[in-house]
Amino acid sequence: MARAAVVLLALLALACARPSSSARVLNAAETSDVASVEASDAPAFCHGIDCPAFDVVKTTDAYEVRKYPGELKWTTTTVTGLTYDAAVSAGFERLFGYISGANAKREKIEMTAPVRVRVVPGEGPFCESNFTVSFFVPFAPDGGRATQIDPPKPVDERVKNEVDACAFTARVKTFGGWARETSILAAATDLSDALRADGEVDAANAGKDHFFYAGYDSPFTIAGRHNEVWFVVPDPDCETS
Q1: How far from the centroid of its chain's Cα atoms is residue 114's Cα?
Q2: Taking the CB of residue 33, how many other CB atoms lie within 10 A of it?
Q3: Domain encompassing residue 186
Q4: pLDDT tens digits, one per residue of 197-233
Q5: What is the reported pTM?
Q6: Contacts for 112 with CB less than 8 Å, ≥ 6 apart
Q7: What SS3 class is residue 18?
Q8: Looking at residue 132, which CATH number applies to its domain?
Q9: Whose CA is closest to 113, among 59, 152, 153, 72?
Q10: CA 98 to CA 161: how far, in whole Å?
Q11: Looking at the 3D structure of the chain, how many domains does it have?
């Protein structure tokens, strides 16, 4: 299938994703420094489709601090390239093929949020950066927001089913508009500056090696778009092999 046709189908999937029956949209803004998103709740920016649960532990004017649980499942693919837009487009195409049936069970899998991109910057102006694009694995029917499905094996060897082994804390910068490489880097810079101003040096330094972009909107959404940059610190008590 031509690339243009695949991308068009991907846009339609994002625009028409059906709300999950297990998700309840929050209808009140967080007002305190410590707020919790319970397992049965989903923030409004998830638009009623499956997205990971988290706890909000701090809110400032510049960023939010969230705790995410361990063992979250994602379907991922890694692309190495000089430009963010081209690399992410290629990664999205692979993952969309997977949820469209390019898997061992030939099953169609519902679209979720966010599309998460792990960005590992190159070490010089002409060094290639690394981008890992991920789709969140949907929740199991009647499992609430605690149990994800057992995803089928991908057909494309470049696509993998992976698990976040550790719980992690994310410092999250939210921004609107259309996410492009320049706007994502600007948000990451603003987040780093805000963390340093608050004395969160370790969290700011975590963004030097890698950071995440998370996008929640259909490309057909014009107003009120929701984008995030995450600086992630793993749970120090989590042991990985």
Answers
A1: 4
A2: 11
A3: 43-74+112-150+164-241
A4: 999 998 998 888 899 999 999 878 888 899 999 999 8
A5: 0.81
A6: 17, 49, 50, 51, 135, 136, 137, 138
A7: coil
A8: 3.20.80.10
A9: 72
A10: 11
A11: 1
